[in-house]
Amino acid sequence: MSRSDWEVVIGLEVHAQLNTASKIFSGASTAFGAEPNAQASAVDIALPGVLPVLNKGAVERAIRFGLAIGAHVAPKSVFARKNYFYPDLPKGYQISQFELPVVQGGAITIRVGEGDKAYEKRVQLTRAHLEEDAGKSLHEDFHGMSGIDLNRAGTPLLEIVSEPDMSSSAEAVAYARNLHALVRWIDICDGNMQEGSFRCDANVSVRRPGGPLGTRREIKNLNSFRFLQQAIDYEIQWQIETLEDGGRIQQATVLFDPDSGETRMMRSKEDAHDYRYFPDPDLLPLVIDEAWIKRVRDEMPELPEAMKTRFVTEFGLSTYDATTLTASKEMATFYQATVNAAGATLAKPCANWVMGDLAARLNKAEIELDASPVSASQLAGLVARIGDNTISNNIARKVFEALWNGECATADEVIEKQGLKQVTDSGAIEAIIDEVLAANQKSVEEFRSGKEKAFNALVGQVMKASRGKANPTQVNDLLKRKLAG
Known about the structure:
Shape: elongated
C-alpha cells in the first residue's frame, strides 16, 4: 500500500528558554558556557529549607507570547510539581504548570511550500506554560561514567504545545520555523538551537483516512529543523510499515539518531497520571491583572503579520516580498530603515536590493545581517541614486561592491571618486551611437533584415563605449530612432 492510504497526525511541543538574566525560581545566572555547576544555587540543587521565588521577567515574557498569538492570558494560573526521577533533576520533581497554564489557546498561521504549490494553514495552540529546565547529563568526557552539570537547572522555559493540526513534516517544520522567528521577534528567547535554547518534541501518529487517532510516539529533543524533518519522515514510514506488517504501535518516547537517520525507543511513554501532579505548596497562584497585560501590550513591537500587511498596503509590495522581508525581525528592521532613509516612493527597489544583492552577498560571506558592512542608510543612498538616474542598476553594483569593501562611506563618494555618474546628455549619447553604428555596419544590416538580436549587440557596444555610464533607456530610444531613420 502507498503512503496516500494513511493520514499523518502531528503535534509539536516546543521548549523555548526565556532570555532572563536569572533563573525562574532563583537569582542564579542563566548565561551559557560557564564551568559545570558554577551557576547552580542552593535553590537550583534543592538543598533542604530553600524556597522558590518566581521571576517576574519570565512571567512578562509569557504574557508577551500569549498576546502575540492571540491567546487567553489566564488571570490566575497555578504551579505544580511534576514528579519523576532523572540524575540531572535534583529535586526529584520539576516545577511546571498543569491544569491552569498561564497561556491558553491561540494560533499561528504558517505558509508551506513555494511557488504555485504554496498554501497557508492555521495551527491552533493548546497552551503555553512556564516551567523550570532540568540539568544536563554529560557522557562524552567520562569513560564509563556520566557527569552532571546543574548550570541549566532552573532556567526558565516556556513550553508551547500545539494541537495535532499538522499532517506532514513540511508543515511541522514550517510551524517550528514560524514559532522560532516569533519568539526572537518579540525578544523572549534567543532561539539558539545549538545551545538548546529552542528544542522541539514531535508527537507523531498515523491512521486510516477518517479513522480514530492512532497511537502516538514522541520524538524528543530535536534541535535543528533538518533533524525535525528527517525524524518525522522516518517515524511516519516506520509506523506505516509496522501497521501494514500486522504489528501494533506502542505509545513511547523515542530519540532520533542523526547518524543513522532512525528513531529508537527510549522508554514507554508516561501519561499525566504517571507524573503525580499536585500544586506546589511553596508557590502561591500566579495572578495577572488587566493593568499588567495592558502594560506588556503597550510595549509590544509591531508583529510580523501586521507588518507584512502594512508593507503590502503602504509600500505596494507583493505578498511574497512582504512575507520574505518579515521572515526575521532583523531583515524587517533593516528594510524599514532603508525605506525611511530613501523615501517611500523607492520602497520596491529597496526591497529588491535587500532581498537580492545584499542577501546574496551576506550568504556568500556567511555573515548575518547585523554584521553587514553595508548599512541601511548606505543602501538607501545607493537606491536613491538609481532612482534619480545618477547611476544605472549595473553601475550600482560597482558602487555596492565599493561600499561593501569599505572604500567609501557613501554611494555619492564612490560615484564621485570613480567617475561613475550616468551620462544622460542626449547629444553625448548620440555621438557615441554614431561611432558605434559606423564601426558595426554588419550588425546594422542584420537588424534591418529582421534579426532582433543584432539590436542587442549594438546596445552592448554603445554601453561598452560609454564604459557602462550611458542611460540604458536613452540608449535604447535613441538607437531605435537612428536605425529607423
